[in-house]
Amino acid sequence: MADSPDRSDSDPDEEIMRATYRALREHGYADLTVKRIADEYGKSTAAIHYHYDTKDNLLAAFLDYVLGRFKDSVHEVETTDPEQRLELLLDQLLVELEDHRDLLIAMLEMRSQAPYKETFSERFQQNDEYVRYLLETVIAQGIEAGAFAEVDPDHVARALMTIVDGARTREVVLEGDALATARQTADEYVTAVLLEDEP
Amino acid sequence: MADSPDRSDSDPDEEIMRATYRALREHGYADLTVKRIADEYGKSTAAIHYHYDTKDNLLAAFLDYVLGRFKDSVHEVETTDPEQRLELLLDQLLVELEDHRDLLIAMLEMRSQAPYKETFSERFQQNDEYVRYLLETVIAQGIEAGAFAEVDPDHVARALMTIVDGARTREVVLEGDALATARQTADEYVTAVLLEDEP
């Protein structure tokens, strides 16, 4: 996710989302206030509340926004070769996050609140379903094309998301190269499970 | 981790740790107060503060306690056959948690605070190093015995912990069978990477 994409600044929702992103990166979720988002937005808290009545609603919209940005970036993956497409998806899920540790920190804080906040829980569930749908689709296409072994696409998508979510948690909680380790692990898993009959 | 192990009730530290565990299960990390721990302990907050000067110090001690309990349970794994021992370790890291979703929720909340709290960060780092050491040791023994392929034990241990941490996060954030999916994923990974030369 780029800091300052060249988009029209006339859309208040887009501007508020970008202000929320900057405030989350700077303060983290626990110390996030509408005041701090308003400061990043350059307007009053009333200007924020005009669009979003509570902080939780704003953050729910932010999670939708993050998913939307992710969807946009996925649409840029133009290759239709299943093996290559799967690699590029895994790159986007893991490698692209290397410069966004502060966003990963804020997202993990929000994820940890999912059991208490239905609005968060729904979004994380939807995001996960969407990404698994992308993975399942490319896996099913690879099986169809004879490029992948005849696996259960649902299980393999869940397995890959387990590796992705493990990396995202470890990148926040522990020192070290969690994303690179996970990228290698995902490759080993794909090679073993999907390409097992390949030469 | 059992709720009420049959231990001596005369050790105040042990009693406070068990009270902390119950308070965390009931209220979660964000709503945890020393008062609520004291209520579980059946004594005043002063009685807690006599042993732990701050809530964070108490929680740091709690993380040490959880690791201690985990170490105790690992010592019960008596088999020395590398393949079997690795399976049992993975069971303890994944399957044993199925009845402890409320503990997983509280732990994920604490993990998400690691970037802000050095005392938490240090403990999670130590826990991870300890578990990886156990995994590395059994992998190295398996290689030595000719039961496992000649892999890098450090990488394989990190890969397995990525799967474990992914499952723990997904179990909290998402619906579904995250621990069972991860257990199967870990098995597939072990079979592919460690047992690749086996018949």
Automatic annotation (TrEMBL), chains A, B:
Q: Which domain of life is it from?
A: Archaea
Q: Does the record's keyword annotation contain Transcription regulation? A: yes
Which InterPro entries does UniProt cross-reference here?
Answer: BetI_C (IPR039538), Homeodomain-like_sf (IPR009057), HTH-type_TetR-like_transc_reg (IPR050109), HTH_TetR (IPR001647), Tet_transcr_reg_TetR-rel_C_sf (IPR036271)
Question: What residue stretches are annotated with the HTH tetR-type domain?
Answer: 10-70
- Keywords, ordered alphabetically: DNA-binding, Repressor, Transcription, Transcription regulation
Q: Which PANTHER family match?
A: HTH-TYPE TRANSCRIPTIONAL REGULATOR BETI (PTHR30055:SF234), HTH-TYPE TRANSCRIPTIONAL REGULATOR RUTR (PTHR30055)
Question: What name is this protein filed under?
Answer: TetR family transcriptional regulator
Organism of origin is Halalkalicoccus jeotgali (strain DSM 18796 / CECT 7217 / JCM 14584 / KCTC 4019 / B3)
Lineage of this protein's species?
Answer: Archaea, Methanobacteriati, Methanobacteriota, Stenosarchaea group, Halobacteria
